Amino acid sequence: MSPGLIGTRTDTRRNEKLAPLRDAQELTRCKLYWIPVGAFPVPDRQRQWLMAFLDKIVAIAGKTFGLRPEVFLQARVIDRDLVSTFVETSDRFVPIIGLGKRPSEPLPGVPTDRDIEDLQKGRTQFEFNRFAPGYCYWFLEKAERQQRDVFFGRGGLTIIFLKPDEQTKPPAFPVPKKFFQHEMFTRFGFDIDSSRARSYSLLDGFLDKSKQLCGDDVRADPQFKGLAFILPVLETRHFFQESEEEVSKWFQLFDLYITESPVDNGIVVATRLDWESELEAALEDLRKQGLSYTEIAR
Protein backbone atom coordinates (compact mmCIF):
# COMPACT_ATOMS: atom_id res chain seq x y z
CA MET A 1 0.00 0.00 0.00
CA SER A 2 1.16 3.52 -0.74
CA PRO A 3 2.51 5.22 2.40
CA GLY A 4 -0.76 5.84 4.20
CA LEU A 5 -2.16 8.24 1.62
CA ILE A 6 -4.54 6.03 -0.35
CA GLY A 7 -7.21 5.49 2.26
CA THR A 8 -9.04 2.31 3.20
CA ARG A 9 -11.85 1.55 0.80
CA THR A 10 -15.09 0.45 2.42
CA ASP A 11 -17.24 -0.29 -0.65
CA THR A 12 -16.50 -3.98 -1.30
CA ARG A 13 -18.33 -4.10 -4.63
CA ARG A 14 -16.45 -1.03 -5.82
CA ASN A 15 -13.19 -2.63 -4.65
CA GLU A 16 -13.84 -5.66 -6.81
CA LYS A 17 -14.68 -3.63 -9.90
CA LEU A 18 -11.54 -1.50 -9.65
CA ALA A 19 -9.08 -4.18 -8.50
CA PRO A 20 -6.10 -4.11 -8.60
CA LEU A 21 -6.42 -0.32 -8.51
CA ARG A 22 -6.83 1.35 -5.14
CA ASP A 23 -8.65 4.67 -5.22
CA ALA A 24 -8.58 7.53 -2.75
CA GLN A 25 -12.30 7.75 -2.09
CA GLU A 26 -11.92 10.55 0.44
CA LEU A 27 -10.14 12.80 -2.08
CA THR A 28 -12.60 15.14 -3.81
CA ARG A 29 -10.28 17.42 -5.82
CA CYS A 30 -9.63 14.67 -8.38
CA LYS A 31 -9.79 10.93 -8.91
CA LEU A 32 -6.57 9.32 -7.66
CA TYR A 33 -5.60 5.67 -8.11
CA TRP A 34 -2.60 3.59 -7.15
CA ILE A 35 -1.45 0.21 -8.50
CA PRO A 36 1.16 -1.55 -6.33
CA VAL A 37 4.24 -3.09 -7.92
CA GLY A 38 6.66 -5.55 -6.38
CA ALA A 39 9.70 -3.42 -7.24
CA PHE A 40 11.31 -1.30 -9.93
CA PRO A 41 12.20 -2.65 -12.44
CA VAL A 42 8.66 -4.03 -12.47
CA PRO A 43 8.48 -7.85 -12.35
CA ASP A 44 7.57 -9.43 -15.71
CA ARG A 45 4.22 -10.85 -14.54
CA GLN A 46 3.05 -7.43 -13.37
CA ARG A 47 4.47 -5.63 -16.38
CA GLN A 48 2.49 -7.82 -18.78
CA TRP A 49 -0.80 -6.88 -17.09
CA LEU A 50 0.14 -3.21 -16.77
CA MET A 51 1.01 -2.96 -20.46
CA ALA A 52 -2.38 -4.43 -21.39
CA PHE A 53 -4.10 -2.09 -18.92
CA LEU A 54 -2.34 0.96 -20.35
CA ASP A 55 -3.32 -0.11 -23.86
CA LYS A 56 -6.93 0.10 -22.67
CA ILE A 57 -6.42 3.49 -21.04
CA VAL A 58 -4.79 4.99 -24.13
CA ALA A 59 -7.73 3.74 -26.22
CA ILE A 60 -10.30 5.18 -23.80
CA ALA A 61 -8.51 8.52 -23.61
CA GLY A 62 -8.44 8.80 -27.39
CA LYS A 63 -11.79 7.38 -28.46
CA THR A 64 -13.97 8.61 -25.60
CA PHE A 65 -12.32 11.86 -24.60
CA GLY A 66 -10.33 12.87 -27.69
CA LEU A 67 -7.04 13.06 -25.80
CA ARG A 68 -3.51 12.40 -27.07
CA PRO A 69 -0.66 10.86 -25.06
CA GLU A 70 2.69 12.57 -24.58
CA VAL A 71 5.54 10.47 -23.16
CA PHE A 72 8.32 11.57 -20.79
CA LEU A 73 11.29 9.68 -19.35
CA GLN A 74 13.14 10.73 -16.20
CA ALA A 75 16.86 11.11 -16.87
CA ARG A 76 17.70 9.42 -13.55
CA VAL A 77 16.59 6.00 -14.86
CA ILE A 78 18.94 6.12 -17.85
CA ASP A 79 21.56 4.15 -15.98
CA ARG A 80 24.28 1.92 -17.37
CA ASP A 81 21.81 -0.81 -18.33
CA LEU A 82 19.53 1.56 -20.24
CA VAL A 83 21.88 4.11 -21.75
CA SER A 84 22.66 2.09 -24.87
CA THR A 85 18.95 1.53 -25.52
CA PHE A 86 18.27 5.22 -25.05
CA VAL A 87 21.03 6.19 -27.48
CA GLU A 88 20.00 3.56 -30.05
CA THR A 89 16.38 4.78 -30.08
CA SER A 90 17.18 8.51 -30.03
CA ASP A 91 17.16 8.89 -33.82
CA ARG A 92 13.70 7.33 -33.93
CA PHE A 93 12.08 8.82 -30.80
CA VAL A 94 13.89 12.21 -30.83
CA PRO A 95 14.09 13.06 -27.09
CA ILE A 96 14.04 16.73 -26.03
CA ILE A 97 15.32 17.56 -22.55
CA GLY A 98 13.34 19.59 -20.01
CA LEU A 99 12.72 19.58 -16.28
CA GLY A 100 10.81 17.06 -14.22
CA LYS A 101 9.93 18.98 -11.07
CA ARG A 102 8.27 18.00 -7.82
CA PRO A 103 6.05 20.74 -6.35
CA SER A 104 7.94 23.35 -4.30
CA GLU A 105 11.27 21.79 -5.24
CA PRO A 106 14.10 24.11 -6.47
CA LEU A 107 15.83 23.68 -9.81
CA PRO A 108 18.89 21.40 -9.74
CA GLY A 109 22.12 23.32 -9.21
CA VAL A 110 24.63 23.91 -11.98
CA PRO A 111 28.11 22.32 -11.66
CA THR A 112 30.53 24.32 -9.53
CA ASP A 113 33.97 25.46 -10.73
CA ARG A 114 35.47 22.67 -8.63
CA ASP A 115 33.19 20.10 -10.30
CA ILE A 116 34.28 21.28 -13.74
CA GLU A 117 37.98 21.26 -12.78
CA ASP A 118 37.68 17.73 -11.37
CA LEU A 119 36.09 16.55 -14.63
CA GLN A 120 38.71 18.27 -16.79
CA LYS A 121 41.60 16.78 -14.84
CA GLY A 122 40.04 13.32 -14.70
CA ARG A 123 39.64 13.26 -10.92
CA THR A 124 35.97 12.35 -11.38
CA GLN A 125 33.95 10.82 -14.18
CA PHE A 126 30.92 12.57 -15.63
CA GLU A 127 27.65 11.14 -14.31
CA PHE A 128 24.57 12.74 -15.82
CA ASN A 129 22.36 12.02 -12.82
CA ARG A 130 24.80 13.72 -10.48
CA PHE A 131 24.84 17.00 -12.41
CA ALA A 132 21.29 16.94 -13.75
CA PRO A 133 19.02 15.21 -11.23
CA GLY A 134 15.39 15.91 -12.03
CA TYR A 135 15.78 16.52 -15.73
CA CYS A 136 13.65 14.47 -18.07
CA TYR A 137 13.07 13.83 -21.76
CA TRP A 138 9.98 14.37 -23.88
CA PHE A 139 9.75 12.35 -27.09
CA LEU A 140 8.95 14.31 -30.25
CA GLU A 141 8.08 11.17 -32.19
CA LYS A 142 4.49 10.19 -31.47
CA ALA A 143 5.00 6.50 -30.81
CA GLU A 144 3.58 6.04 -27.31
CA ARG A 145 3.18 2.25 -27.50
CA GLN A 146 6.70 1.69 -28.83
CA GLN A 147 8.22 4.03 -26.26
CA ARG A 148 6.31 2.38 -23.45
CA ASP A 149 7.38 -1.04 -24.70
CA VAL A 150 11.04 0.04 -24.51
CA PHE A 151 11.11 2.11 -21.31
CA PHE A 152 8.12 1.21 -19.12
CA GLY A 153 8.88 -0.59 -15.87
CA ARG A 154 12.11 1.20 -14.90
CA GLY A 155 10.43 3.66 -12.55
CA GLY A 156 10.79 6.82 -14.62
CA LEU A 157 8.07 6.91 -17.29
CA THR A 158 5.24 9.46 -17.24
CA ILE A 159 2.39 9.75 -19.73
CA ILE A 160 0.16 12.81 -19.78
CA PHE A 161 -2.97 13.09 -21.90
CA LEU A 162 -3.85 16.40 -23.52
CA LYS A 163 -6.40 17.83 -25.90
CA PRO A 164 -5.22 18.17 -29.52
CA ASP A 165 -3.26 21.29 -30.44
CA GLU A 166 -3.89 22.65 -33.92
CA GLN A 167 -0.47 24.33 -33.92
CA THR A 168 1.20 20.93 -34.09
CA LYS A 169 -0.50 19.94 -37.37
CA PRO A 170 1.76 20.63 -40.35
CA PRO A 171 0.09 22.48 -43.23
CA ALA A 172 -0.25 20.90 -46.65
CA PHE A 173 3.13 20.42 -48.28
CA PRO A 174 3.39 21.69 -51.88
CA VAL A 175 6.08 19.25 -53.01
CA PRO A 176 4.68 15.97 -54.47
CA LYS A 177 5.39 12.90 -52.34
CA LYS A 178 6.81 11.18 -55.39
CA PHE A 179 9.77 13.56 -55.13
CA PHE A 180 10.76 11.98 -51.81
CA GLN A 181 10.65 8.49 -53.28
CA HIS A 182 13.91 9.24 -55.05
CA GLU A 183 16.84 7.07 -54.03
CA MET A 184 18.65 10.02 -52.43
CA PHE A 185 15.93 10.02 -49.76
CA THR A 186 14.84 6.36 -49.58
CA ARG A 187 18.33 4.91 -49.14
CA PHE A 188 18.69 6.80 -45.85
CA GLY A 189 15.15 6.07 -44.66
CA PHE A 190 14.13 9.74 -44.82
CA ASP A 191 10.41 10.18 -44.05
CA ILE A 192 9.24 13.71 -44.83
CA ASP A 193 5.89 13.29 -43.05
CA SER A 194 7.48 12.10 -39.81
CA SER A 195 10.16 14.78 -40.01
CA ARG A 196 7.60 17.55 -40.45
CA ALA A 197 5.38 16.16 -37.68
CA ARG A 198 8.31 16.15 -35.24
CA SER A 199 9.24 19.70 -36.20
CA TYR A 200 5.72 20.99 -35.66
CA SER A 201 5.59 19.21 -32.29
CA LEU A 202 7.95 21.90 -31.06
CA LEU A 203 5.07 24.39 -31.46
CA ASP A 204 3.00 22.48 -28.91
CA GLY A 205 1.29 24.92 -26.57
CA PHE A 206 1.86 22.72 -23.55
CA LEU A 207 5.57 23.62 -23.57
CA ASP A 208 5.12 27.27 -22.60
CA LYS A 209 1.97 26.49 -20.64
CA SER A 210 3.85 24.01 -18.45
CA LYS A 211 6.38 26.71 -17.51
CA GLN A 212 3.64 29.25 -16.81
CA LEU A 213 1.64 26.87 -14.61
CA CYS A 214 4.43 24.95 -12.86
CA GLY A 215 7.35 27.37 -12.75
CA ASP A 216 6.26 30.22 -10.48
CA ASP A 217 8.71 29.29 -7.72
CA VAL A 218 11.71 28.97 -10.07
CA ARG A 219 10.99 31.78 -12.54
CA ALA A 220 13.84 33.90 -11.19
CA ASP A 221 16.40 31.11 -11.65
CA PRO A 222 18.80 31.78 -14.59
CA GLN A 223 18.08 28.28 -15.94
CA PHE A 224 14.35 28.92 -16.24
CA LYS A 225 14.44 30.75 -19.57
CA GLY A 226 16.29 27.93 -21.29
CA LEU A 227 13.91 25.17 -20.19
CA ALA A 228 11.80 23.67 -22.96
CA PHE A 229 9.11 22.53 -20.50
CA ILE A 230 8.44 21.71 -16.85
CA LEU A 231 6.76 18.39 -16.15
CA PRO A 232 5.19 17.98 -12.69
CA VAL A 233 6.62 14.86 -11.04
CA LEU A 234 3.81 13.84 -8.74
CA GLU A 235 3.50 11.31 -5.94
CA THR A 236 0.27 10.39 -4.15
CA ARG A 237 1.14 12.71 -1.27
CA HIS A 238 1.15 15.76 -3.52
CA PHE A 239 -2.54 15.37 -4.35
CA PHE A 240 -3.33 15.52 -0.63
CA GLN A 241 -0.77 18.04 0.57
CA GLU A 242 -0.64 20.70 -2.14
CA SER A 243 -3.15 23.54 -2.28
CA GLU A 244 -6.31 23.37 -4.36
CA GLU A 245 -4.87 26.15 -6.51
CA GLU A 246 -1.74 24.11 -7.24
CA VAL A 247 -3.69 20.94 -8.04
CA SER A 248 -5.96 22.90 -10.38
CA LYS A 249 -2.90 24.10 -12.29
CA TRP A 250 -1.89 20.51 -13.00
CA PHE A 251 -5.27 19.72 -14.50
CA GLN A 252 -5.13 22.84 -16.63
CA LEU A 253 -1.99 21.33 -18.14
CA PHE A 254 -3.29 17.77 -18.61
CA ASP A 255 -6.54 15.82 -18.32
CA LEU A 256 -5.05 12.49 -17.30
CA TYR A 257 -1.73 11.76 -15.60
CA ILE A 258 -0.03 8.36 -15.29
CA THR A 259 3.40 7.92 -13.75
CA GLU A 260 5.72 5.30 -12.32
CA SER A 261 6.42 6.34 -8.73
CA PRO A 262 9.21 4.52 -6.87
CA VAL A 263 8.38 6.56 -3.74
CA ASP A 264 4.87 5.06 -3.80
CA ASN A 265 6.05 1.60 -4.87
CA GLY A 266 3.56 1.69 -7.70
CA ILE A 267 1.82 3.34 -10.62
CA VAL A 268 -0.07 6.56 -9.90
CA VAL A 269 -3.08 7.56 -12.01
CA ALA A 270 -4.86 10.90 -11.58
CA THR A 271 -7.66 12.60 -13.52
CA ARG A 272 -10.73 14.77 -13.34
CA LEU A 273 -12.40 12.92 -16.20
CA ASP A 274 -15.80 11.35 -15.63
CA TRP A 275 -14.51 7.96 -16.74
CA GLU A 276 -15.23 5.35 -14.07
CA SER A 277 -17.72 3.36 -16.17
CA GLU A 278 -15.12 3.11 -18.96
CA LEU A 279 -12.39 2.25 -16.44
CA GLU A 280 -14.45 -0.50 -14.81
CA ALA A 281 -15.36 -1.92 -18.23
CA ALA A 282 -11.70 -2.00 -19.25
CA LEU A 283 -10.71 -3.86 -16.07
CA GLU A 284 -13.56 -6.34 -16.52
CA ASP A 285 -12.46 -6.96 -20.11
CA LEU A 286 -8.95 -7.79 -18.91
CA ARG A 287 -10.42 -10.32 -16.48
CA LYS A 288 -12.46 -11.92 -19.25
CA GLN A 289 -9.26 -12.24 -21.28
CA GLY A 290 -7.80 -14.25 -18.39
CA LEU A 291 -5.35 -11.55 -17.40
CA SER A 292 -4.96 -11.24 -13.64
CA TYR A 293 -2.68 -9.03 -11.58
CA THR A 294 -0.45 -10.70 -9.02
CA GLU A 295 0.56 -8.39 -6.19
CA ILE A 296 4.13 -9.44 -5.52
CA ALA A 297 5.49 -8.44 -2.13
CA ARG A 298 8.75 -6.52 -2.06
Task: State the gist of this model.
The protein is an alpha+beta fold. It has helices at 12-18, 44-63, 83-93, 113-120, 128-131, 144-151, 183-186, 192-201, 205-214, 236-241, 244-253, 276-288, and strands at residues 22-23, 31-36, 68-74, 95-101, 135-139, 157-162, 230-232, 256-261, 266-271.
Could you name the key traits of this structure?
globular, 9 strands, single chain
Describe this structure in words.
With 298 residues, the protein is of the alpha+beta class. The protein has a domain at 14-163 and 232-286. It has helices at 12-18, 44-63, 83-93, 113-120, 128-131, 144-151, 183-186, 192-201, 205-214, 236-241, 244-253, 276-288, and strands spanning 22-23, 31-36, 68-74, 95-101, 135-139, 157-162, 230-232, 256-261, 266-271. A nine-stranded mixed sheet has the order 1-2-9-8-6-3-5-4-7, sandwiched between helices. Strand 1 and strand 2 form a beta hairpin. The mean pLDDT is 86.
